[in-house]
Amino acid sequence: MVNKSLTLLFVLAFAATPVWSANILALFSTFSPSHLIVHMSMMKTLADQGHNLTIVTTLKPKIAPHENMTFIHAPASEERLKGMNEYLEKSSKEKLHMVQAMINSLTNAGSMLGIGYDFVVDPKVKAIYENPQVKYDLLILGYLMNEFQLGIAAKLDVPAILSWVGVPFTFVDDSVGNIYDPSYVPSITMAADPENPTHSFSWRIRNFGSWLVFKALGLGVEYKMNAFYEQAFGNDSSMPSYDEVKQRVSLLFYNYHSHSEGPVRPTVPQSIEIGGIQIKEKPDPLPLDLAGFLNNATDGAIFFSLGTNVKLKYFDPQLIETIYQVLSRQPLRIIWKWDDQEPKPGNASNIYFHNWLPQDDILAHPNTKLFITHAGKGGVAEAQYHAVPMLALPVFGDQPGNAQLMVTSGFGISMDLLTLTEESLEKGIQEVLKNPVYRNNVRKFSDLYRDRPLTARQSVIYWTEYVMRHKGAYHLRSPIVKLGFVARYNLDVYAIILLILLSTFIMFLIVLRLVIKTLRARQQTKAKVKRN
Ligand SMILES: *[C@@H]1O[C@H](CO)[C@@H](O)[C@H](O)[C@H]1NC(C)=O
Ligand SMILES: *[C@@H]1O[C@H](CO)[C@@H](O)[C@H](O)[C@H]1NC(C)=O
Ligand SMILES: *[C@@H]1O[C@H](CO)[C@@H](O)[C@H](O)[C@H]1NC(C)=O
Ligand SMILES: *[C@@H]1O[C@H](CO)[C@@H](O)[C@H](O)[C@H]1NC(C)=O
Ligand SMILES: *[C@@H]1O[C@H](CO)[C@@H](O)[C@H](O)[C@H]1NC(C)=O
Fold it and tell me: Which Gene3D superfamilies does its entry note (predicted)?
């Protein structure tokens, strides 16, 4: 009897939670710590679910050891990183002319692609696909203009999932066949205007221009990626072509929630939104000293962080002094993300300086009243999730776009970091703290953001396992990914229609001329007959 009920219990337990441990290989050749945070949240979700993850990264991720995660570190070369850092420094020091900014982002894309290539041929990474020790079931690839890395999925003969850290832009959309419609889908450098969804002519022309620039850039990037693919995998005659290998993508996860973040956009079933995956559903306890500091902040607290990519030392020291003067005289307490290696600007008792801060947990704290941010996608999303209004100081990349979107959504204001004065910063801080409109808007958003059928974590688990259960789930794939450029945009059909219209018109003209000629001839003969 006891035995029987034990067996029953055993069976029930297994039926409730199917035990399935897949071997998943994950590759993240990103050089951005904030990207890595998003990817790692996904990894942790899958590891907690019981899957066995082998994770290869260029940066060392800041994540606690986990029994189901094996980390392999394949760092980028000093030379490549130098190129990247020079770009970041340049963009943070000066306001660049548009052409200069474009040239810079092109060279930036160059070093980015180079880092991705070095990664593929790194001996540690090569060992995984030339000589695998375990049978992998799936490849997860952090997207960063690195589709040539999908060759590794072909080598291992596994399906691939792409993971992107934000709202998709044209390149990411193309990887699964999402329609990018420039008449209303904002380009990555543009913000949508939620008050005016039918966009003005000037908005559409700028958006179209931005889209065209990205398309042109995409041609160059594709050319380079094809070359890298040939260089890395071309020696193996059993490998498919680069175009075929791109079709190995089973799914795209991206860190975006269109229902609340808007605007909704056309996406294919292969695109799965996991907006807010990096945000913990329940905050962790803060370190003791920080918890004391925040709990005692009876007037509230301001969290000031310019993220991980922007180093304050790149800025004019006068700017730091300005910010310090304003923050040190606030009645609120300040938590300031500060590079520990640099001397602090002062010792004000209301400021807590630290290099590594649990941003998410700080924003979740009820005493946090304002977030002063560089408007990185991750930070903005966390503040929105926890309903904290913002003052944005965007610097480069997607930050101005994020900040503009945050402002048009009514969650706060944005200011130019390079022209900041004590008066303007003070005024900005008071505006966001005292005017309730920002807090109310962000609260409304937060309620929408959390209301979903599956949480971001549940989506990651469900869809990742779905792909493995259905051997790549290629039935989800949009036919668009197989179409060439001409077929994709129906150019041949339009050309034929135009041809038919044109030839009909020409025929009409010919007939008309003939009729006129005949009529004239007849008239002339009539006239002649009369005269005679
Ligand atoms: C690791 O995976 C196993 C199943 O393979 C699971 O039982 C265990 O709970 C996982 N570990 C953690 C810390 O989640
Ligand atoms: C889990 O992955 C690691 C690293 O690839 C590997 O050494 C180990 O054998 C795997 N475990 C199982 C149970 O497959
Ligand atoms: C492919 O072959 C060429 C010429 O034999 C060689 O230079 C190159 O290093 C090889 N590439 C790889 C990835 O093995
Ligand atoms: C917080 O306030 C309590 C009681 O006033 C005090 O004992 C403690 O030292 C304070 N902690 C910090 C970090 O200021
Ligand atoms: C802050 O205090 C430390 C230690 O007391 C001191 O060395 C430093 O010079 C002070 N910094 C400023 C800007 O006053």
Answer: Glycogen Phosphorylase B (3.40.50.2000)
